[in-house]
Structures are given as C-alpha cells and as structure tokens.
Amino acid sequence: MADQQKRRPGGLKRTHGATASTAEKAESSATPQTKQSRIVTEAEKESSQMSIPLELPEGADDLEELRHIYDAAFATLKTDSEHATVLFRGVIHECDRLLRLQAEQTPPSTPGLPPAFYWIYGMALFCLSELTEDQDALGFLELAEEHFNHGLELIDSASPSTRAKYDEVGERLQLTDIQSRLTLACAKTRISQARILATQDMVKSAKTRRWLMSAAVEGFNKLIDHARQQGSEEMRLAGIPWLIQKMELIQSYAELLRDQAEVDDLLQPGVEQLKKVLSDNSDNPKLWNSLGLSYWSLARFYLDQAEDVEDDEEKENDTKHQELLEKAKPYLAQCFEALQKSEQLFADGNPELSLLLLTLGEVSINLGNCLEDGEDREEEDQEPEQRLCGLTQTELYQRAVDSFKKARQVGGDDYMLPEHFEVFLQDWEQEMHDD
C-alpha cells in the first residue's frame, strides 16, 4: 500500500456549517419605553423608507404593514443580501417608530404591542447580524435577545387574542404559539452570541459563553419537553426536529472549542437524549444521523489535536499523537455505526444523503488512519490484521471510496465532491492501478 498520509484528508472541517435556517435563528426584545435599536442613521432611515416597494393589504394597520416589510426582507435574504440589509433596517426603523408612538401616546391602561411585534423586531436584528461584521453583529444579537425576552415577559399578561394577533408567521415556522417561537429565537440568538465571543477571546469569554449555551440548551429543551408532553402522536414527534436542530447548533459551536470538559459538557447530554429518543424512534434516519454527527464532533476534538502534533519529529509528540488517536477511536467507531444506520434508512433521493455520505467517508478514512499500516503482511508469520468496526485498514479506505462515489451519484450530474475528497479518490485509483 502507498503512503497512507496521501489518502488522509487531515484536519478536514465539515463544509456544511450551521444548518438552521436564518428565519428561525434568533429573537430579541427591548423595554419599549427605554430601549431602541440605536443602529439606524438618518441616511439609512431615508434609504430604508425609499427602498421598500410593497403591496400592502387595504386597510392594514401599522403592525400588519410591519409584518409585510419583514416578510419582504426575509424573502430577499438569500438572493440579494444588500437589498435585504436595507429592508431589515427599514423593519427596525418602523419598530423604533412604533415604540416611540406607544411611549408618547398610549395611556398606561391601553394594551401595548403584542408579543409577535417583539418577535419581528428581534428577528430583523438577528438577520441583520448575519449580514454584518462580528463586532456589529454582537450588538445586534444582544438587542435581539432583549426584545425576545420582553416578548416572553408579555406572554403572561397578554390576552389570548393579543397573543395571536399578527402571528401568521407561526404556520411558516411550524410552531403552534408565539411563546414557542420567542423561546426558539432567543435560544438561537444566545448560541450565535457564544460563537462570536469564542472567536474574539476564548479565555475571557468562558464564563459568559457557558451561561449563554446553558440558557440556549434550556430553551431548546423546553420546546422538546412541551412537544413530548402533548397527547397526540403528531405533537410528540414535533419535538424531534428541535432536538436535531439543537444538536446541529451545538456541534457547530463545539468546533470552535479547545477545552475537553467544555466539549463534553455540551455534547454528552445531547448524545444521551438522542439515544433515549431513538429507543422509541429507531426507524428515523435523521436521529441516527444526528447521533453520528455528535460522536463525530467528540472524535474531532481529539483528531484536531492529533493533527497539530502529527508533523513534529519529537518522539514524545509521536507518542502524544497515538494517545490522541486512541481517545478518538471509540467515538469514531460509534459515529461510523450510527451513520451507516442512517444511510440504510434514508431514501436514495433524499437531499441529506450526499452530505451524510461525505461525512461517513471521512470517518472511514480516520478509522483507517487509527490502524497500523497493513501493507506487506505475511499470513504465515504475522498476526491477523487489525480491525475497527469489523473492517481492516484497506477495507475502511475502500468504504470511504464507496461513500464518496455514491455521494457523487446521489448528487446528480452537476454535483462535485469537495476537492480534498476528489484528491483522495484519485490517489486511491492510482494506487489500485499501480498494484
């Protein structure tokens, strides 16, 4: 066999990143009498007001108009980020105006703005945070969190009719009540804040990040538990997407971390939660995929460290490298088994299958790298070749090849593998030809 390092896409990061949709990622709320966004300049206000060509329903009031502006901004987000930025700033400007009107004109006895208003306000800030630099984004996210929290505080005092008013976005998000949407958005906003803080100063932000992640996980768990406690099977199953989404965000955040205890504290409870839910839903491929990706995140913590010392010629670092691979090995094996199960359950045409196969191929390569090189073994004077997950090193590399080829097939004629996987396939095929 040729040098296995040629076949190893070392230190690869998953290319898909966070998977949650922007529309569902965040929420925020501020005290209307005292806090406004403070982010829209006079020039931006004029630009926002001049750049929102909307067909509003006849007789629409201010809040209905606000919702239509937000929907227009969201619809533009993926196709024209520059125009979406203008529209979201227009939403924020309108929200500030409505808050000023309420503070100046509303008697204390008159009902205030409904919780759905604060969902829209916070979501506009959250979406704007994704379109700006990290430093500005953090400020937007903090304000968004305040607005979401204020919306949640209003839930107890708002009448049922006020809660439901202007709440048509609920159907789009498949959440049955405004409280759930505010809870979800607040949780995602906190995770986004933690991500930015981790990239700015990992050490100084440790305490704040832990609080943000703990609060975010608690928010997700409230949604999951609420769904699980409902009587109907449909509502019980509704909690599964929130569990998967929670784990996706945690996995993405864990990629930034360098502290083993912090990684374990975030991922291990989620792993146990997934296993518990799988006990009653063993035919759900997305749950198996989420479990596999959680094990993959745990394994990659050690693989990334192993890569850092791999090229060092110091003997002690070679020993350290092997120790790190040994720690990664059980997580890799569990990941391999879970992803294989997910692959078996997914329909061939499922759009998620290609990405799963890429991860399965990379996991197979790393499992192979954990085994001693099996080339030139002589059966008569060598012990049986080592195996992981029942496969030899060569068989694991072949499993990776099969996964990448299947991913290309599932993806269709225009699908292209990431470059490092194409290189792996070319090296493998060249080796097979040489043999």
Automatic annotation (TrEMBL):
Subcellular localization: Nucleus
Pfam families: Nro1
Compositionally skewed regions (Low complexity) per UniProt: 18-31
Keyword field: Nucleus, Transcription, Transcription regulation
Gene3D superfamilies tied to this protein: Tetratricopeptide repeat domain
Ranges annotated as spanning the membrane: none
Region (Disordered): 1-54
Biased composition (Basic residues): 7-16
Record's keyword annotation contains Transcription: yes
Listed GO CC annotations: nucleus
Record-level GO BP terms: positive regulation of SREBP signaling pathway
PANTHER family membership: ENHANCER OF TRANSLATION TERMINATION 1 (PTHR28290:SF1)
Similarity section: Belongs to the ETT1 family.
Protein name in UniProt: Uncharacterized protein
Biological classification of the source: Eukaryota, Fungi, Fungi incertae sedis, Zoopagomycota, Kickxellomycotina
